[in-house]
Design brief:
The protein has 98 residues and is of the alpha+beta class. Helix content is 61%, strand content 20%. The chain is built from one helix and three strands, in the order βββα. Strands 1-2-3 form a three-stranded antiparallel sheet, with no helix packed on it. A hairpin with a 5-residue loop joins β2 and β3. The longest helix is centred in the middle third of the chain and has 60 residues. It is rod-shaped.
Amino acid sequence: MATERVTEHPDGTTERVIDRDSGGTTYVERGGSGVGGVIIGIAVLALVAIVAFFLLSANRQEAIRTDAVTSAASSVADSAAGAANAVGDAANAVNPAN
């Protein structure tokens, strides 16, 4: 004949012990509530979301910075081209034979 005992622990886990008369074998089955695993899963998911947000934000800031530098360089190049044209026009005005 088998004897079965079920014990509930304060952390929410249960333990079921079955004693069988044949051979003196004892089987112990332990089960948990699984709440700890769910909480860990949610925490990991939140951490991944936070890291992704910061990486995307940094990437966006880098793109804005690159656009600003490109615009400034283009403006300087346009100013240099305008100055070169003005110098060329002034040289032609002083010496119209060329």
